[in-house]
Amino acid sequence: MSKNHVSRRQFLNYTLTGVGGFMAAGMLMPMVRFAVDPVLKHTGGSDFIATPQKVSDITNVPTRVDFTFTQQDAWYESEVTNSAWVFKDDKGEIIALSPVCKHLGCTVDWNADKANPDHFYCPCHGGLYSKDGTNIPGTPPIAPLDVYPFQEKDGYLYLGKAEPRKEA
Ligand code: FES
């Protein structure tokens, strides 16, 4: 007969350790799951956000288009409203510019400076941009306005995430 028999004390130790571990795992799993849940969640869907702007209504005059979407920040969900200046250029192509000034982030307005008509104007420090979003030398902004990629779906304009303009 083998001398490797398990004593009553060892048996109880093994059993209690096993049961304790099983119970601890049962308690910890929901906590771990809760902690990493936003990371595991698949957001899915498109990165383009619907706007109320009908593509057929876009003219060559920049029009401010506001659009709202739900932003998920870890466990916090909030409604965010962004804007774009949307128009058609001389070739009839749609341009959607970010209104965020590239100097210190104020909001630019179209045609708001009487001394510089047909420009985007930033009231914070007098920043100026031409209609295509190019910053005017001699004013504070040091880069062109960001550009939204866009799509057309069911006749409406959808906008992606604004990005710095790519130089040709
Ligand atoms: S923030 Fe626009 S010019 Fe300074």
TrEMBL record:
Coiled-coil parts of chain: none
Pfam families (alphabetical): Rieske, TM_PetC
SUPFAM superfamilies: ISP domain (SSF50022)
Keywords associated with the record: 2Fe-2S, Disulfide bond, Electron transport, Iron, Iron-sulfur, Membrane, Metal-binding, Oxidoreductase, Transmembrane, Transmembrane helix, Transport
Domain of life from the UniProt record: Bacteria
Gene3D superfamilies: Rieske [2Fe-2S] iron-sulphur domain, Single helix bin
InterPro entries: Rieske_2Fe-2S, Rieske_2Fe-2S_sf, Rieske_Fe-S_prot, TAT_signal, TM_PetC
Function: Component of the menaquinol:cytochrome c reductase complex. The Rieske protein is a high potential 2Fe-2S protein.
Quaternary assembly: The main subunits of the menaquinol:cytochrome c complex are a Rieske-type iron-sulfur protein (QcrA), a cytochrome b (QcrB) and a cytochrome c (QcrC).
Protein name per UniProt: Menaquinol:cytochrome c reductase iron-sulfur subunit
Species: Niallia endozanthoxylica
